Amino acid sequence: MSSFSGLGASFWRNQLRQWHWISSAVCLMAMFLFSVTGYTLNHATDIESKPKIDTKEVTLTAAQLGALDGAQDKADLPVPAVHMILEASGIDVEGYEAEVSEGEIYIPMPKPGVDSWVSIERDTGLMTYERTDRGVIAILNDLHKGRNSGPAWSWFIDIIALFCVIFCLTGFGLLWVYAKSRAITWPLIGFGVLAPFILFMVFVH
């Protein structure tokens, strides 16, 4: 059956149109960004990037090191330790888990497009901070992958994925409705469905 008829058909056509434009509106910017970053990820080796690296070293006093005594492995630093590091270096490590050993406290602080960390040598008090900024494209690429972007962004990706599915299904429904008057519809759908499988089997598999 390639078309609908009657009052029921009118209802479903209206529903398809409504949900198609709603899902397209919600997905518009995200789909554009994910499409662009899909290209940049596919050509990552061809896109030159010059990382910007900043480093800072501070030697902590014995009293400052004392604020780290309660630090535990794979856990956030105690509040006094967070405040001490912020006052000593201007670096905010709140919310980041520390890797604690007998000789060192290491705090990785990754973000989209940025790799940064703090290392504190417990015997000498030397605190080293390094931040590597890989640029705007790297930020967008990491957001595309959900890398180091936090739970809120992960939820955003899931919601956008759901609306993309709605967009595709309602688009297919509209194609079905109007296929009778557009002969090229089913050949194009067939091409769109089969092309990825053919490419995979012939050139990838």
From TrEMBL:
Pfam entry (one): PepSY_TM_like_2
Keywords: Membrane, Transmembrane, Transmembrane helix
The keyword Flavoprotein appears for this protein: no
Keyword S-adenosyl-L-methionine listed: no
Transmembrane feature ranges: 20-41, 155-178, 184-204
Database matches in InterPro entries: PepSY_TM-like_2
The protein, known as: PepSY-associated TM helix domain-containing protein
Native source organism of the sequence: Asticcacaulis machinosus
Species lineage: Bacteria, Pseudomonadati, Pseudomonadota, Alphaproteobacteria, Caulobacterales
